[in-house]
Structure formats: C-alpha cells, structure tokens
Amino acid sequence: MAGEMKTTLNGLDVMAATQTIEAIKADKSLARFQFRAKNTWVGGGENRSTIRDFYGAGLEDDSRKVAFEFTNGEPPVLLGNNEGGNPVEYLLHALAGCVTTTFVLHAMARGIEIRSLSTELEGDMDLRGLLGLDDSVSPGYEEIRIRMHVDAACSDEELEDLMRYAEAHSPVCNTVCRPVPVKLSRA
Amino acid sequence: MAGEMKTTLNGLDVMAATQTIEAIKADKSLARFQFRAKNTWVGGGENRSTIRDFYGAGLEDDSRKVAFEFTNGEPPVLLGNNEGGNPVEYLLHALAGCVTTTFVLHAMARGIEIRSLSTELEGDMDLRGLLGLDDSVSPGYEEIRIRMHVDAACSDEELEDLMRYAEAHSPVCNTVCRPVPVKLSRA
C-alpha cells in the first residue's frame, strides 16, 4: 500500500522531486541539459519548428513519441497572414510558463500550496531596431512586465519572497535578463 | 491591371514593406509595438497561454478573430507528462523563427531571393541553477548555437553578411543576447 502512495503538492510528485534533487547533489553531471529545436522556413514570415529530443539527467530523452510542432507567423501589419503567433509573442509564452513553473516548483519545495496562478505579460519594442532604421534603437524588447495573480496558502510576505525567488531562478527569465551568447553559423 | 499587381520576394509583399518603412520614417511613433500574453497555470509543470491582441503602427490590432493558444509542459524527467513543449524549448522556437524572419526580410530588402532556409538549435543549461543548488550556476541558457542551412541567389559573402545582420537585428536574438529587464509584480 505504502509503495503505491504518491504525495503531490501543486500537481508535482514530491518524492520524485526530492529524488531528483538528491541525485543531482550526488552527481552534478546529471544537471547538464541540452534542449534542441529544428526550424524550417515556409515562406514570408511563416516558419515551423519541430521539437522532440533533448539530453538531460545523463541520457538522451526518448519519452516523446511524436515531435511537438509550432508555427511562427506574422499579422498583416507585419506582412503576414496570422499563420501563427509571432516569435516575440512566443517568447512571452516561454517566459510566462517558465516563471510559473519555477514559482510552483519552489512553492512545493517550501510546502506551500498554490490554489490558482495566472499572469499577464506586456513587452514594448520599437520596430526601427528590426528594420535597421536607427542604430541607436535596440531591436529587442525594451522591457517586459509580468503581473501575477496568485492565490496560495501562505502569507503575503512568503508570496513576495517566492516571486523574487522565481524571478531569479527561472531559466527563461534569466536568459532574458542576462546577456546570453547566441552563435549563428552556417551549416 | 497595374493596381492588382503584387510583387513578392521571399513570400513578402515588396510594396507593402516599402510603404511600412516609409511610413515609419515619416512618423517614428508608428514603430512602437506592444505584444502581450495571458497565461494560466493548469497544474504541475503545465500552463497555457492565450495570445491575440497587440498594439502597433498606431493602433490596437484586431486582425485575429480567435486567440492563439500554446501549452507549456514538462517531460517525465522534469516531473511532467509531456503536456507540451517546455518553456526553454519554446524559447528556442521563438529564437529560430525570429532569426529566420529577420534574415528573409532583409534578404528581400537587398533583392536577394532565398530558395530554402532551415535552422538547428541547441542550448545548454545546468539545472542546479533552476533548483537553487549552487548560487554560482546561472539558471538560464549558458549559450545557444544556431546552425543555418540556406540556399540563396547570392554569393557566400553576401550570405555571411546577411547572417551577421539578422543576428544583430532580430528582436528575439537581441532580447536573449542583451540584458532585458523583466519586472514581475503582483496584480
């Protein structure tokens, strides 16, 4: 009976999380991950990624029987036909998801139950950067704001501390906040 | 007859692109864009974004009749059930798409026909950062590599120059390469 018990908090398997953390503490090479994507241009502002395999926890993952497929597109004002979300919108989706998962994971580690959580994101950009019309204008987001609605079984101070912790430890948030080298080369 | 002609290069409407650029040159406020996402936590490492409206070219866009919906998930080794790509994978998709679209756009501006284009991306990360096991380990990507396969009607030197230009002017690439402030607050 005990062997079948599974304790979850915030939808995460507490025992599995603890085992993962202990395994990484014992062998830090298990913490090395490599994520991958393949993308093919369709035409104009439309292109498609397939994502399936990755390396992590010491081996090549084979848990996905079918690849995920995501389509980038552009709205008419950006010369497309809304074939999909556009790349800077997918970045917001990635950021929202990563801050959320990091928040929920560390809430679990602290024994805090999250009842509900949602976020709203806004990012500002000046298209003159992308178009190369003004070298003093950066092509990327100038700033991204995330407003979090959260209901949890803890004090406001604990929530605030969790938010600061998630902000500092989210891989996507960190990739955006810090300068991360991107190396583009011809195959 | 002439009024119905539409010249496209690389799947992009050349006249529309020129008009957009001229309009922005005449009124730089038209270059201001704000992109948005709303995300709701489902449970564990699963959460879902809806993306629809944005502000740009001086007005609120209403071209999308239905919102795009994207699901973040995690693989079993990261305590999930592959409910969707994970956030750091979506980031690679965003980056691939943005570099591709920027490349294709500026190829058009230079009159260069792109016949085919695909990319392969890899990003390395050490999970001890996310888990908070070692403060000296950054939670984000350490480096992201993009290998581009491209067939175009131009010289290798022109291709190399286009690659460097796309790298420098892609909004997502720029958001990753530079430090961009992310402000997380409670709603």
From TrEMBL, chains A, B:
It comes from Stappia sediminis. InterPro entries: KH_dom-like_a/b (IPR015946), OsmC/Ohr_fam (IPR003718), OsmC/Ohr_hydroprdx_reductase (IPR052924), OsmC/Ohrsf (IPR036102). This is OsmC family peroxiredoxin. It comes from the Bacteria.
